[in-house]
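S.,

Sequence below, as promised.
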Amino acid sequence: MTPVSDRTCVIAIDAGTTGVRSRAVFADDRPPVSAYREFTQWYPHPGWVEHDAAEIWTAVKATLDEVFATVGADHVAAIGITNQRETVVAWDRTTGEPYANAIVWQDRRTAGRCAELAAQGHLDLVRSRTGLVLDPYFSGTKFEWLLTEGAVEVSDDLALGTVDAWLLWNLTGGDVFATDPTNASRTMLFDIVRRRWDPELCELLNVPMSALPEVRPSSGRFGVTSDRCAVVPGIPVSGIAGDQQAALFGQACFEPGTAKNTYGTGSFVLLNVGDRCPPPTEGMLTTIAWELMDGTVAYALEGAIFVTGAAIQWLRDGMSIIDEAPHAGPLAASVPDSGGVYVVPAFTGLGSPWWDPYARGAVLGITRGTTRAHLTRAVIEAMAYQTRDAVTAMVTASGTPLTDLRVDGGASAMDVMLQIQADQLGVPVRRPVDQETTALGAAFLAGLAEGVWPDLASIAARWQLDATFTPVEDRTMADVAHSQWLRAVERSRGWEQES
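The prediction came back faster than expected:
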């Protein structure tokens, strides 16, 4: 292990849906150093979303180089990886070249296949083994599509993995082909109780187990950077977690009953439910929160909301209603309510608790008096409504009332949204000083493995409160607004199927 000094840091690679951020997190709590690069979004057909995996790796190298140049390689104790989870990459382990574009978690091209599997009676098997539902959101049917419709051939050199495995493979110069349980648990191919690839599910989806990565603990040394990867060699890569589980770890939600919501491209509510895998829960996902070097495992219930921050991007890029994303909050706050307008941002279907891949976006309640401020507020209110729907299902399933919600992600900077969220949930919403908790979680997992932070208590001590949003005492109006929201959701459901 690298001796810990005041300048010791861990670099987190946060490979998100729209860009890559490399962020140095210091042992002595000094301000982090970060670099960011966006990459291209490809939409070849309606409902399809793709990335160029090689472009993602190029962005990783560029941001790592920038951060290393600032902090100095001698002070870097480890690298941690966090990533968009269900996005899949197929590549050649001999040449290192991707066989096709990565299929992104938002992609809905396998909706028909999921419906077929459900009709054949496979849902109970998937639910009991994986904690997931039959939805194109998850990786398994994406892998299958690449091997059938995508014309990727099965061979001894074939690698099928999520983005973390692709980046680890490149960082180690092709020496290590591995993932962690948080990412594996999102593939629809992984038994979350036995914590291993499931042969029956792999056979069902025609995915060869030989092409899947080894599954190792989320915190622990996976390998070291290679001089073949064009970044600084010899740095341990010691932590991996999918972005939402990393955020749960970064929010120090180490005890059962603690919860967080990340407002990113989508929103993801995770509730720590302890070290025993709960039974399948209607409307919710069960997932592995993390596995540590000592074998400690935590499970979580998750509510997955496909579109929240992406709706702000739609206001900016698709509708030209705002010039910049930070303008959304002040514009929404300029009106007391949405004027009866409801926006259901089901651009790629609905996630928890509806799981309707055929839902599509809807705007309802427009009048002659509707302004761009009302539309913007309606989009922001939709973030809070969708979170309430997911939390309601989660609380019902767990039997444990939510006492508060820790929040992070880009949209958590909007005070107006967090106040609406508190009013909708009826519990305090707490925002930390450092809202980049996804990167923090990856850094903490890697640093824990390398002794930068000695235990979970030392990590929890770093969490600092920025603001608390307290709900209104009388929730009558909040409940009325939510009832109208549910009416709007019903009008959006099944639209693509019916058209």
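Residues 9-250 form a domain with the Nucleotidyltransferase; domain 5 fold (CATH 3.30.420.40).

Coffee later?
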